[in-house]
Amino acid sequence: MAHKVRRQAIQKQRVQRKRRKYKVRWKAVIPLFAFFALLLYFIGSLLFRFLPWNQMTTICGFNKEETLEAINTHYASSYTVSDYFFYGEVLNLYTKDYTGEKNELQGKKIILENLCDKTTQTFEIGEKADEQILIPQLNAGFYSIFIEDETGAKLRLVYDEVLEENSYTSIVRNQVVKKVSLHSDPKYLGSSKYTFDKNYLFLEVKEEKPSKDRLDVLIDPYGNNRDENNQLDQGQVYYNIVEYKESYAAALQLKELLEKQGLRVGITKQSANEETQDYGENSRFKSGYEQQANYYIKLGFNGSPYEYAKGFEIMHSSYSSSMFAQKVWQYMLEHTPLQGSTMKEMIQGQPGLLSSSRIEGMDGKELYDEALELREVGGKATLAGMYSLNSRQNTFAFDQRLGMYGLDIELLYLSNREDVTLWKEQKEAIIESLADALLYALQVKSE
């Protein structure tokens, strides 16, 4: 009996020990539970905030409410565009797919309303690819875009589809570039409460530090180039001067002078003796496209069997106006002993200021710049990669929305004794003046 009592007592002690062992200490558990609950709430709210359907893009440094208030979602009157490209530092818009022919928007006004500061900028659409929206004149902001037609009616611009991500930058001025992007996505803001009823077109402009992998200017020293028949052209050779060597030396000096003013400058070859090509994967224009250069400068010299042929010449594409080329031309004639060319036809009485003539392409259309370089560097604007079977090897240029504004500069005639004497005596000063002329025309450096 005593043994049984002892066994029961031992079992009772074991049960009591188990109960004491697993007894919940609520004073310690409750704060710990509250901590984990708060932690889960914090993590959950962060995840919810960054879920795709709860994200929202804001503009102008506004918060969500201010952004929604700034953008009007509905316009009774709209105007549809369906194509765009950048040429140099100009944004071009078109109502139909661009073919090089007349733009239906020509003669109308584009009105940009900056939603950030309520300011307005207006551009009249001209005939040429450098006569639309001038990027250097835009302030940072987020713009609604309108068209004013011949009747004075103001219509909101819409795009015929949702644009893919795109951006383009101006050249470096005051150590910054202007980055522009076009948007037409009705769900661009990402707000679950807010979508546009149409593909309204917006232009976003930001000021940024320049990227080192981009170019402002691509210089192409002429000579030692293989043409479409694989024939090597050394360029002009007169009075013991070989063009490809002289033009490369001039290009190096010009590059150095432009870079001193902050521009990003490239040259199409690494040495004077390097051979270049017009077409294909080894085309000398490819680096300009890959590094999104804004401007292309073909730099070389002229030659003629006629001794009286002499002077400075500059040519622009038939798809651009003469405004930029004219500034360079006028500066050179005012600041150097050079004269305008005595050989080539004049534009409005200005000797040596030229526009490329147009020739017929393999499609039977007379739409193509005769000047090969100006045609193949302008991308979509100049119908690059379309003229011939050879030009179609430049697949990187075909339908390229980021095109270079091109200039063909021929400093003087190596066949003319007076020009050659002038060059030998003042070559450094002439190149310095050319650099200043370009900087002046680019509005990087005032006259």
Give me the CATH superfamily of the largest domain.
Zn-dependent exopeptidases
- Give the proportion of residues in helices: 25-40%
Extended strand count? 25
**N-C termini distance:** 122 Å
Query: What is the CATH level 1 assignment of the largest domain?
Result: Alpha Beta
User: How does the helix and strand content classify structurally?
Assistant: alpha/beta
CATH topology of the largest domain: Aminopeptidase
Number of structural units classed as domains: 2
Tell the overall outline. elongated
Percent strand: 15-25%
Query: Mean of residue pLDDT?
Result: 89
- CATH architecture descriptor text of the largest domain: 3-Layer(aba) Sandwich
- Quick one: biggest sheet? 8 strands, mixed
What is the rounded Rg?
Answer: 33 Å
- Unreliable stretches covering 5 or more consecutive residues: 46-53
Count, helices: 8
